[in-house]
Give the backbone structure.
Amino acid sequence: MTNYDVIIIGGGPAGSKCAAALACSRKKVAVIEKDKIGGTCLNYGCIPSKSYLYTVELIEHIKKAKKFGLEVPDFTINWDEVKKRKDLNVKMLALGLKKNLESKGITIIEGEGFLQEGKTVLVKKNDGSEEILQAPNIILSIGSKPLFLPFAQKSENVISSTEILDLATCPKSLVIVGGGIIGVEVACIFGGFGTEVTVIEKLDTLIPFVDREISDYLKKSLEKKNCKFYLKSELISAKDKDDCSEVVFKNESGEEITLQADKTLIAIGRSKVYDLENLEKLGIKNDGKRVILSDFLESSVEGVYMIGDSAMKNMTAYGGEKEGELVANHILKQNPKKIDYDQILVAIFSHPEVAEIGINEFEANKRDLNIEVRKSEYSTNGKALIMGDREGMVKIILDKETEKILGVSIIGAHATDLIHEALLAIRYNLTASDWLHNIVWAHPVLSEVIKSALENSKF
């Protein structure tokens, strides 16, 4: 039996961040990873999707080139080269992450880890051997998996977000079941590559937790880019048929519609990969849906933690990293502050991009808050005009009495970058006057669209 100070099962963003923080404080750390270091985000999600989305952004710039006085000849998309670059990005980042962890003295074990009684972990290594590890602190960072339904099971042409980002050829037609973040980003990718995309969503809006005005704006934008939407529509079945996929659903009017497409992506969410009953046998309590965790993500068994997607609190890579840091600080007894999940921003890399922090207008109205909304359009911003990216807007939600910033929503070019300015305003409880008058903006810059929104007090 090999002893460590900390054993982390799962080497995704949460597990890797936690391991690095602990190793820097001279803790003996082992990370067990059954697949690839970096987890879903690096290997199958964030990096592959954003690699494709950047290529689509280049395509959009080329299409606009004539407006800038550039005569660009017709271009073709070489899918093999597009995919090769995506794979190279993933490989380089994965190698860099592994090298960084090993340089800190972290032991990386390739295999699957199983929590046992007595703070032990059984490791079934990828080479077929087994090993027992022991540590006073064990962290479960085991991720999640795509959710499928009994009437929409995974098959050759009915696939998950993992397979859609690794297709050998670009499909001519694609049905996406689910209008959340994954569904929208994939629609942007393949719509940008010229695929005929159809999105089927059960709710009456895309990305339901986003400001409704922003969501509607995004839908109208995507409808101009090879994307068709069926909202308030109920999936009946999705299956393979011959050499393609077939989807049957009821639209808003109750009409039953059958669609055939090269591929169908099921993007209705992600689910846990662990068995609650097995964990309960080890003393780890649950509420029937998920493991019960403290503010510091510790389970009912002292020294056993859960972070990242498996904790099911914030299923983003950056949220998982924050959880990894929290648990590392808790183990090191460095008086960590619990995470305010309301202050973890939303970043959607659609075209145009969408980002939010704090409370949006739709949520504020649901809570019956006394608010003021200030807006500004990208079309009035000098830098956006220069770039030819006039599509977009900023919405700032204020407490009407105190002028305190409650939330910011942005749609438009570089929204996922601009939102970080708003993050500081929310974090430090700034009022609109604080934010506007204590900062000097450069000119012309995109962030002036935030300044303009702060100045526009009559909406």
Notes: The first strand starts at residue 2 and ends at 3. The mean pLDDT is 96. DSSP finds 14 helices and 23 strands in the chain.
